[in-house]
Design goal:
alpha/beta, binds guanosine-5'-diphosphate, binds magnesium ion
Length: 264
């Protein structure tokens, strides 16, 4: 079973095209799937659009009355998935803005079988790229990803900020069991949670892989919710917290994880 996690904030325009493509993708395979959407206090018709799909696809809707941000939505989505899933199931997290084409879902999940715990859809892997991104944003994401690669090196990983990923259920279960509510800790810092998950999962020994991915930003109709100043601040905060002083939180979590494993 594949659990598709979609954080949605004012995505009324994208729900129909995205869910059509997801159902179409699965109709060509015999894989079971379940979509979990977190509506994060949308002020448009996102909830109505999602409710229209409830009779057509296996779908769970989590609603926040107030906008709580991507971090809190991701936390709720992962907790719900783990509650429903078995260890052999797969979690796919993707954006709800119709820029992450569902045709990559199966290749991301298949790659997990090569022994990875997390497989990231990568614009920077050979054959990957992006369409419709202006030069400024393209420069920013390049620079941010190079920064992350230097500060948080992970073998084989070039893409740190894309939220389109496949996760092995067992690694998310372990992360939630070990970190609890601290798995996604920097909730107020925009999209920092996307990097935080890489760092926290690496600490508990996750293996990372990538699949080349074309980001169809040219298909984006809803406005971007990424506030680059807050996210940049978040990345710098992560760099400081996890390295300073003497390894910072990274060292502390590693020691705690060692004890956690010994107690098992
Ligand atoms: N739940 C929730 N989702 C959000 C929030 N901000 C953005 N998103 C969702 O997170 C995903 C990434 O945001 P998006 O606007 O696509 O960012 P971009 O692709 O980097 O421009 C989309 O599915 C958004 O709907 C938020 O405050 N809460
Ligand atoms: Mg997006």
């Amino acid at each position: 079973m594949y659990y598709i996690l979609l954080p949605a904030y004012n995505e009324e325009i994208s729900i129909d095209p995205l869910l059509s493509k997801i159902t179409n993708e699965f109709s060509q395979s015999d894989i079971d799937y379940h979509i979990i959407i977190c509506d994060d206090g949308s002020t448009d018709n996102t909830v109505e659009k999602v409710n229209d799909w409830k009779s057509k696809v296996p779908l769970t809707l989590i609603t926040h009355k107030i906008n709580r941000g991507l971090g809190e939505s991701a936390r709720d989505l992962f907790e719900k998935a783990v509650e429903l899933a078995n260890d052999e199931d797969v979690i796919i997290r993707m954006d709800c803005d119709d820029t992450h084409e569902p045709k990559f879902i199966i290749s991301l999940a298949e790659k997990l079988k090569e022994g990875y715990d997390v497989v990231i859809a990568s614009r920077f892997a050979k054959g990957g790229g992006q369409m419709g991104v202006n030069t400024y944003r393209s420069f920013l994401s390049r620079a941010a990803n190079l920064f992350m690669k230097v500060v948080f090196p992970v073998k084989g990983l070039k893409e740190y900020s894309c939220g389109y990923r496949a996760y092995r259920v067992s690694i998310i279960k372990e992360a939630l069991d070990f970190y609890g509510n601290l798995f996604i800790q920097l909730k107020g810092l925009g999209f920092t949670c996307t990097l935080e998950k890489v760092v926290k999962l690496k600490i508990i020994g996750a293996r990372f892989g990538e699949v080349a991915f074309l980001h169809r930003y040219d298909q984006k109709k809803s406005s971007s919710k990424m506030v680059s100043s807050i996210t940049t601040l978040g990345y710098i905060t992560m760099a400081l917290l996890y390295h300073w002083p003497f390894g910072g939180w990274r060292r502390v979590y590693k020691l705690k994880y060692k004890k956690y494993k010994e107690s098992k």
